UniProtKB/TrEMBL annotation:
Enzyme superclass (EC): transferase
Names of required cofactors: pyridoxal 5'-phosphate
Residues reported to bind substrate: 15, 42, 108, 131, 176, 281, 377
Ranges for domain Aminotransferase class I/classII large: 35-386
Official protein name in the record: LL-diaminopimelate aminotransferase
Record EC number: 2.6.1.83
Residue numbers binding pyridoxal 5'-phosphate: 72, 107-108, 131, 176, 207, 235-237, 246, 281
One MF term in the entry's GO annotations: pyridoxal phosphate binding
Family: Belongs to the class-I pyridoxal-phosphate-dependent aminotransferase family. LL-diaminopimelate aminotransferase subfamily.
Organism placement in taxonomy: Bacteria, Bacillati, Bacillota, Clostridia, Lachnospirales
HAMAP family, sorted: DapL_aminotrans_1
Pathway linked to the protein: Amino-acid biosynthesis; L-lysine biosynthesis via DAP pathway; LL-2,6-diaminopimelate from (S)-tetrahydrodipicolinate (aminotransferase route): step 1/1
N6-(pyridoxal phosphate)lysine found at: 238
Purpose: Involved in the synthesis of meso-diaminopimelate (m-DAP or DL-DAP), required for both lysine and peptidoglycan biosynthesis. Catalyzes the direct conversion of tetrahydrodipicolinate to LL-diaminopimelate.
Biological source species: Blautia faecicola
Amino acid sequence: MPKLNENYLQLKDSYLFSEIAHRTAAYTEKHPDKPVIRLGIGDVTRPLCECAIKALHESVDEMGQAATFKGYGPEQGYAKTRDAIAAYYKRNGVDVDADAIFISDGAKSDTGNITELFGHDNVILIPDPVYPVYVDSNTMCGNKVTYISGNADNDFLPMPDHSQHVDVIYICSPNNPTGACYNYEQLKEWVDYALENEAVILYDSAYEAFISDPELPRSIYAIEGARKCAIEFCSLSKTAGFTGTRCGYTVVPKELVFTSSDGREMSLNTMWNRRQSTKYNGTSYIVQNAAAAIFSEEGIKECQENLNYYKKNAKVIADTLTELQIPFYGGIHSPYIWFECPNGMDSWTCFDYLLENIQVVGTPGAGFGENGKNYFRLTSFGTYESTVEAMNRFKKLFAK
Ligand SMILES: Cc1ncc(COP(=O)(O)O)c(C=O)c1O
């Protein structure tokens, strides 16, 4: 009998979305005449932009001709795609070398797989609440996690505790689920703390494209010193509607060098390159060509139309909650709106209350950590019409 990875026994059941689906299905079966509005989805709904479609078609045609057919590509990604991403960083005022960029099939794989570069006796700091992949992927390999609390007192933007040493720090900004977004000063404090502690920051920037205020950093590398202490994960999922097309990228700067227990220098860039070359055979040529098109100036402009659509929905939600005096976070630089459950409800009670009374489905905050248990996440990925209708129902339900 094989000995199994019993760390899996330590995982908490991920019943969040199945439970939401189950409760929603039970309700609709009982009340088929009452249409439910879903503002819980973390998936995009707008179609791919024109330049992505054009690049996809052209690449498919190339694959159909012997002269232009492509087999295995470089595991790190094609130079064209890496260069296009480096140029995108440059246009946003950040220097990132193309050879620090690794193209992937999305940020979920990379944020999950990155644990392989680290030993098992690190102090690993993970915010609560946050995207559950960080905790689960560490649990799967037997790592112990230390939580840092995001809460109303720190506007869900926890800051370092300078009296405590940590080795690995997860940061997600703009945050899923809270929508909160760090400013320069706050990120600088994290970078300075990491440098002082010789720690590494794992910076998840999957929602950077939602940041429209030029005063807010869209990359950790906008902060001086970050290339010596941070890995950045990005995704085309929300930027370009690639949740089904699949493409992301991870930046591992060459400056990220640490010392092994026997005094040898270890480069995280070299290690990640080795890891990817061993276990990953690259993102498809077709998808990478579409990604390169996305990061052209024209491509980014086209994507912005979809982002603006979602941002308009977010504003409808944010304005309604403001009017109803329900405290909330996010909704400006993020597709997520994180509100405090009214009348002291816990998040699952709030879920049932909204479903029963106004047929609006969202995501209970408890699914993102202990600190989410009295909060609720709505997303702006629905249609404009359904978002407006959901908010009209909110107004009727919560008007004082
Ligand atoms: C914070 C965060 N990181 C990463 C991902 C995963 O992105 P991808 O679709 O690129 O795997 C998500 C998706 O919901 C997310 O919310």
